[in-house]
Amino acid sequence: MRPWREKDEKSRCTEQQLFAIASHCGDYEFLVIFLGHCGLRIGEATALTRGHVDFERNVIRVEQTWSGTRSGKRILGPTKTGESRAVPIPPRIRADLKKVCSNLSPGDYVSIGAKRKPLNPEFFRKRYFTPAAKTVGIRDAYVHMLRHTCASILIRVLTPITAVSHILGHSSVEVTPNTYANFYEEDVVKAMDNLSEHYDRFTE
Questions:
Q1: Is 104 helix (H, G, I), strand (E, B) or coil?
Q2: Contact at 8 Å (CB) between 87 and 40?
Q3: H-type helices in 39-180, by residue range?
Q4: CB of 75 within 8 A of CB of 69?
């Protein structure tokens, strides 16, 4: 595992910061909360249609993503790994997600921008996310930090590596501990503290 570095801490936000940023994002408040809960890449989240949200099975099918060319053109294609995945809908956002999807047809995008077209991630970042993050005291914020926030919390609540890897859509299980080594290191320290406290019960 690589050494923990201060900048790793800055790659994510706290739970309080997550909701504070969301509250300053206007019409896209739920999008911020959604990203922090589900860990999708912003290109994947903005590529979701109503047909990808299955409330009967309680999953979100991540099957496509937006990517950009050097000229700035957006292209809709397969996910980064080329594979689809099903991400369970967290109970605490299910009701709000239902409201967002209530008047949408299967082919309608869940996150829309101007003229009812799919939301442009770069527009969202510049117009909403970055100003909101600065308002709550976070400089040099980037939308991907919401994905890191989701990952760090999943790890903190002792989610198995295989489950974290699936939710985030990593190409292999090995990618997860390599990418989030510092988060696992924190968990290892906590585990050893717990072990010490356990033994203390037999020596006091």
A1: coil
A2: yes
A3: 42-45, 91-101, 121-124, 130-135, 145-156, 161-168, 175-179
A4: yes
State pTM to two decimals: 0.86
Q: Which residue has the tokens 């996150």?
A: 111
| Residue 78, CA distances (Å) to 64, 85, 108, 192 in order | 4, 11, 18, 41
Residue spans of the domains in the chain: they are: 11-200
Sheet of 53-54: strand order equals 53-54, 59-62, 85-88
Which amino acid is located at 153 in the chain?
A: I
Strand partners, 86: 61
Tokens of 76: 């809709």
Tens digits of per-residue pLDDT, 126-163? 999 999 999 999 988 999 999 999 999 999 888 999 99
- Is 11-200 a domain of CATH 1.10.510.10? no
